[in-house]
Specification:
Layout: E1 4-8, E2 12-13, E3 19-20, E4 23-30, E5 40-44, H1 53-56, E6 73-77, E7 92-93, E8 98-99, H2 109-122, E9 128-134, H3 136-147, E10 152-158, H4 166-180, H5 194-208, H6 211-218, H7 230-245, H8 248-259, H9 271-276, E11 281-287, H10 295-304, E12 308-313, H11 321-324, H12 326-338
Parallel strand pairs: 5-6, 5-9, 9-10, 10-11, 11-12
Antiparallel strand pairs: 1-4, 2-3, 4-6, 7-8
């Protein structure tokens, strides 16, 4: 299915108190909603992904895969504040006729979920059979499970947590400092902050993988080298790759949104109490080598949610393992879905 755009022609109120005069949401769907309306699989994506989940998660989604458009109606929406079609820094502010750029207001995970809910209503989806999210996508799943508990049957969470950790906030702050050090980042231009975004991506890559991953894949065989190392080339390549497809102002904004994540905020005195309110049958997956959102974060979920199945995957790929280890993940998910 090609990219679709939902236009919401009413004011959209943000947690900050600011109001977007209208909203647009980019999304993809795959498969068909059945007559019973009980075959919806909704995937919430992470930081720099887009709504074409069948492209970036091929190992899990597609014909013959565990999430199959022949059986499921699959939905993925680009998140609020991104640069892939949903309202964000690159979209036009109808009050000025110019793109928002740096003036786009602060958003939270809850704002992102409120936008998802508008799209759910637009698509006439009464119930979501399985709500899926890894990393930042998992933040959205947990919020949504609390905001519309009666509409969601099951949850599937990977490499995620109930609140952004102090470690995660420190990483994101470092990334924003890198963007802010680029004196072009607040300019009203699509390419603003490109050098800063490259540096922010470099910081991120160190947390998406780990020491062992870099040692195994990026160690130079030439012991005589004094410059132009393989690891340096890899980091530069990854930075350049993101700059070509993403936007620094969106990256800055969305790392702020991640920092806002705490399911207890405004609800209960502690995270454990908020987790105890989540009743849906839930599959949790952690990855042993994940240093960004380590297994202890998923274990906290498992200990405080009522109806969970927790699995830990031994993988060398760190946080990125949730995007790479699709064979292991697929087997676990298939068993979870078969267990009625």
């Amino acid at each position: 299915m090609s990219l679709q755009i939902f236009h919401y022609h009413q004011p959209f109120h943000l947690e900050s108190g600011e109001v977007l005069p209208s909203l647009q949401i980019a999304y993809h769907t795959y498969g068909t909603l059945n007559e019973q309306g009980d075959n919806v699989v909704w995937v919430c994506h992470a930081l720099t992904a887009n709504s074409d989940v069948a492209d970036w998660w091929k190992g899990l989604i597609g014909e013959g895969r565990v999430i199959d458009p022949q059986k499921h109606f699959i939905v993925c929406a680009n998140i609020l504040g991104s640069c892939y079609g949903t309202s964000g820094p690159l979209t036009v502010n109808q009050n000025t006729g110019q793109p928002y750029y740096r003036t786009f207001p602060t958003v939270t995970i809850r704002d992102i979920v409120q936008a998802h809910i508008l799209l759910r209503q637009h698509l006439n989806i009464a119930r979501i059979h399985l709500l899926v999210g890894g990393s930042m996508g998992g933040y959205q799943v947990l919020e949504w499970a609390l905001m519309e508990s009666e509409r969601i049957n099951r949850l599937f969470l990977l490499c995620t947590g109930a609140a952004e950790s102090a470690w995660g906030i420190a990483v994101h702050t470092s990334q924003r400092l890198a963007i802010e050090a680029d004196d072009t980042w607040e300019q009203p231009a699509r390419e603003a902050g490109a050098r800063g975004l490259k540096a922010a991506r470099a910081i991120g890559m160190l947390t998406y993988r780990n020491y062992q991953t870099f040692m195994r894949a990026q160690t130079d065989p030439d012991k005589e080298k004094t410059d132009n190392f393989k690891a340096s080339s890899y980091i530069n390549y990854q930075g350049d790759k993101l700059v070509k497809r993403f936007n620094a102002q969106s990256y800055w904004l969305l790392t702020k949104a991640m920092d806002s994540h705490n399911i207890a905020r405004g609800r209960h005195q502690d995270i454990e109490t908020s987790l105890s309110q989540i009743e849906q049958k839930t599959l949790l997956i952690g990855i042993t080598s994940d240093i960004l959102c380590p297994p202890e974060e998923q274990q906290l979920l498992a200990e405080n949610m009522h109806n969970t199945s927790y699995h830990e995957i031994d993988s060398p790929y760190g946080h990125d393992g949730f995007l790479i280890e699709f064979e292991k993940i697929g087997l676990i998910l298939a068993a979870f879905l078969e267990n009625k």
